[in-house]
Give the backbone structure.
Amino acid sequence: MKIYMINNTFRYETENIVRVFFPNEKLEMVNIEKNEQESEKPYILTQITDSDSGKTVMASVHFEDYTNAITDTVDFCENESQYISEQERKTAVCIYRLLTEYTGIIPPWGILTGVRPIKLFRRLLQKHGLDYVRMYFKDKLLVSEEKISLCQETERNESYIIRQSSDNSYSLYVSIPFCPTRCSYCSFVSQSTEKSAKLIDPYVDLLCQELIHTAKILAGYPLKLETIYIGGGTPTTLNAEQLQKLLTVINQYFPVNSCKEFTVEAGRPDTINEDKLKVMLTNHVDRISINPQTMNDDILRTIGRHHTAQQTLDAFALARTVGFTHINMDLIAGLPNESFESFRRTLDTIVRLNPESITVHTLAMKRSSHLTAQGMHIMKENADTACQMHDYCRTLLYEHAYEPYYLYRQSRMVGNLENIGYARKGFSGLYNVYIMDETHSIIACGGGAVTKLKNNHEDTLQRIFNYKYPYEYINGFAEILKRKDEIRTFFDNFL
Ligand code: SF4
């Protein structure tokens, strides 16, 4: 579908709001001078023109069976950025109203398309108070009452965690970009071990070197390590010896004893065994994630995860026996062919296990995933079912004393929903909040890892990218070490 823009420079926001309604449509953004295009339907036209009091924004939609247009005005404002963002917001509102009427879809997040709604909620809350932020989300961004309450509650729990971070805090992220097989919805760089098993040993060797090199740089500054997160991928793809090697280096070179949380994303239940769990526990890992995604074996097969629901139950029981007292479990709402009943059985089973935290994701149809390549589309029925699944989570998890503590959104999520981390009091995943809020610097090592250096004075982030794929990481390792020098330059200026 073509989206014509006359004098509209809000390409990104315009595309995003249309994508909320047409997630699988190929959208072509076209700048034109004036309204004389000859276009095949369907198409959308947006225009911004000067008016006596400021600007007039206009959007029109043209489908075979429906054509309509809406205009609105934006009064001139001395504050240039406020003036521009109001034009952007009103353009999005015009498109939203037209497409809501045409499709019958009422997106629960209104015109809010960003990844971090809680961050915006907090900024407005701190500046203008609760009544204002609630009004702004409802009337200006068209967010539903239910999502506003969710934001309010999540913000409260997040803030408590953010306040524990100080100006010299940082977290360490370690990437293990290998998985036993590739999930059909995956868009990460992770490599299946079927293809890349021989790369794991050299990868772990170099990762240890990168960690040592990085730790030596950090030791020169008065920094405070808050959390460590080993993610991926599936870190427990490593065998017990490889894990031991990696964790020994981390324990030896980083102040592990004084950090508040040390997570390993165990991920696939079929990669967990007693030896690995013991290695993790004896090396100060105090939080693991065992991710069933669904407890429906048929669907697990469909989405390319070669484990069973029983293996999840066994891995969980084993982790408890070994001594883990904080276990998180991840689920996905909106998986292909999963009914509400199936999801309900999954959640009921997980809640009976009594993990300390449960993260409920919504399926995102990323362009690079097999699922999207296979032509699986997000149907409206999936959206309604995913919505029902989230409602059930909220009710059941509240009843069992889990509260939302972090939330983020991605593009192309089924039903335009969100991912929510729920936790019992005292068991929130701190790293999840810090990375999502961009609270402090994240020092990242490994393939695909991105270091984010936070300048709290200017509220800016400087990024250092590592090569993505394991073979690139191995071949370009010298360059990766060289790039780490930017950490030194940053802290020399900042601390
Ligand atoms: S476990 Fe995660 S990283 Fe690995 S293939 Fe599945 S979605 Fe991708």
Summary: The two ends are 50 Å apart (CA to CA).
